[in-house]
Amino acid sequence: MESLNKQVSDMTRFYKSRLTYSLKCLRFLLCQGLIFRGDDESESSENMGNFHELLAWLDEFNDDVKQIVFKNAQGSYQMTCGGIQKDLINSCAKETTKLIIEEVKDDFFGILVDESSDASGEEYLAVCLRYIDRKGRLIERFLGIVHVEDTTAASLKSAIQSLLMGHSLSMSKIRGQSYNGASNMKDLLNNALQRKDQDIIDAMTLVSPTKKQLQNLRSDGWEDFLSRVTSFCVKHDIEVPDMDGYYFPPGRARRFFKKVKNIHRFQVEMFLSVIDLQLQELTNRFDEVNMELLMCMSSLNPANSFAAFDKQRILRLAEFYPNEFSTVDLMKLDFQLQVYINDLSKDVRFQQVRDLGGLSCMLVETNKHKIHREVYLLLKLVLILPMATASVERVFSAMSFVKSKLRDSMGDQQLNDSLVTFIEKDMFLQVSDESVLRRFQDMKTRRNNF
């Protein structure tokens, strides 16, 4: 009996060791966004794929590994087959996402959503979370992707709800949404909005100057623009049309096109039309209500010893959140704001704080977020408002790397798992091998347990 118990104990120990070494190889490949499988994984193959080759390298240089893998492990107990790999990868992704969800807990959060297609042309919806962590830091994390059949509003809403519910996140906690929100903005405004850590106050200050520049370009920019284009065409031997001549579209019969001069076609129908579209886009996105909201937000700006502080505007800002600030809460906030500004404006630790993100962190660091609870809640609600979809755009950049045309047969679940661990590498590295192995064991009934 003692001999049998020892044999069982050794089998369990070897099983866990094989599983652990397989996991370590997979973790390395996941962090690098590398492919796992090979076209030919037989023992006679010259290249069995990254996973098997990496495990073979460990086998060659590590005696502990050599004793328990490949030839020293029988059949399915090698723990290297495709099914085992997928389960381990899925366990890695779920443990990584678990850490992210634990950071959000039951607090408010924003979502950033965008849609795109992979190397094989399949449509995917990517969702990122925007929230404030325990240290008061503004965080954006990739939650996952969803394969969608079409991009109608109903389909997208259903996909988002399904993904959030799958991670025990409540739709009622969403306080900010961005759906490809800044894709039409260019240059300085675009760069500012696309920064992951962008302070909404700084971005707001760029809206009016951008609109003014566009208006100036519309009024006085045509002659200079035409001169630059003409110089470029002459330099590169490109024919320049006579602006006083009539415009005729190439490849179409002249009788089917209205008779307009080139100057009208290029200046009015193209140059001015494009500028008008840009101005209309800015006006739609930053209407009177949005601008009022942004101006109220600016009153929380801590720069220059809280020079922008405006009690009435902050109270107005709180009114935009009736679910969080009842009439009684607004009365408490009214009283608390005066105490808040008197306290923080005299505290030297806040004198070097320049933006809302820094203010949030300093409030938590000094434990003043517990004293000024209503103000801190309002600050969090402002910070989680998504400005753009830069994070989800980075997801699709990662997707083109993780799922290239050479491996477009990767399934939806494995693609999602690979992206989670690759994009949120810093969180993945915090996940212990033990927690991954426990989840792996609990996924289904295994031949061995430990």
TrEMBL record:
Q: Which InterPro entries match?
A: AtLOH3-like (IPR055298), DUF4371 (IPR025398), HATC_C_dom (IPR008906), RNaseH-like_sf (IPR012337)
Q: Which residues form the HAT C-terminal dimerisation domain?
A: 374-427
What are the transmembrane regions?
Answer: none
| Molecular function GO labels | protein dimerization activity
Q: Which residues form the DUF4371 domain?
A: 3-190
Protein name, entry field: Zinc finger MYM-type protein 1-like
